[in-house]
Amino acid sequence: MLDQGIVSGASFATSVVVGRFCGEEALGLYALGFTLLILIRGVQESLVLTPYTIFVARLPGRRRPSYAGSALAHSAAAAFVSMLVLGGCALALSASLRFSGFAPVVGVLMATLPLMLLREVARRFSFAELQLDRAVRIDAVAAGCQLLLLAWLAVAGRLSAATALAAMGVACGASGVVWLVRSGRRLAIRRRRVIGDWRRNWSLGRWIFAEQMCGTANSYSLHWLLALLLGAAATGEFAAAATVVSLTNPMIIGLGNLLGPATAGAYAAGGVPQMQRVVQTFTWRMAALMLLVCLAIGGFGTSALALLYGPSYAKHGGALTLLALALAANALGMGADSGLRAMGRPRETFYASLLALLVTLGVGGWLTPAWNVIGAACAVLAGNVAGGAVRWLAYARLSGAARAAGALA
Questions:
Q1: 3-state SS record for 86-142
Q2: Which residue, 172, 189, 206, sits at the end of a domain?
Q3: pLDDT digit string (tens) for 176-186?
Q4: What is the value of pTM for the model shown?
Q5: Domain residues for 165?
Q6: Which residues contact 33 (CB under 8 A, 6 or more apart)?
Q7: What is the DSSP letter of 159?
């Protein structure tokens, strides 16, 4: 939770500084660039880093350096392909009058992407090896460098959406390169192993990849819909409200990181009945926590929005409340999602994420042109409620059938 607090805190501070010093439109451009980064990180996580975390513990010690080297090579390949795609996007955007201001952001993201993905490799390798203190140091160095660079850019009058992303890339590179130099002995790229290790990762990661892409698209599709329909300034206003709500992410993500292993362990030790007790206990506690979060955001969120970003943002207090409810709906589905994964049914979680994305886009396309940021927040809430409902229905059906089969046996 400390590590996630450092990562989320640096991201939150960057958003606030850009919104304060550069205005709604620059914040919107920064938010759009950040969504592309999250999407690319999702590809890296689902196809490379999550399989690595699962499989590396099963390998003998002498095999681990070559598997780590393969994972590093896979991440480099993902960075290379992503840079090509981003380069094409930058050229296309530069020819568009409406999105010409976004082209420099994409160009900076393309140039700094390998450094950003390298930092992610460093922290996730540290987690896989249970070197949590090392992960905290990696992220603390990156966050400190990022905030110092942002402060210098703001004082020098050079802060923009593009330079903010550049600062993030340089900061990630500072911690990632140091880790890479120090980890030389633990990394051994063997060309004959790289393809075989990729096949192993793909066998596990393809459904995780499909679900994660749908989940990421559901979380950030409204940023792009607002930009297309209403312009970058509307995206910035929506991003400001979403960022305030995301202040609870370190706590929720930290608890979620504990839920997965606890659910899997309960299922392995005591089957469905023991897993159901873990899921039920977690869900009731999460419900109590989200009630407090929603009450706090409903009571103080508008004031926090105006204090952090400026008085002009205070008009979006209603959207802030709707986004808090959407966060609660998503958090309350975490137990069912983890239970389905523990039972070996990731396909159902993908279907739930796909439905959530379709509902979000449908409601967003219907309400956003007339209701602006409020319409976008309604769309996020509708999508999260739909996805959560499908997760719980699938979980109840599959866990009930498994428990009945066990009783008959």
A1: HHHHHHHHHCCCCCHHHHHHHHHHHHHHHHHHHHHHHHHHHHHCCCHHHHHHHHHHH
A2: 189
A3: 999 988 887 77
A4: 0.82
A5: 2-189
A6: 102, 105, 106, 108, 109, 161, 162, 165
A7: -
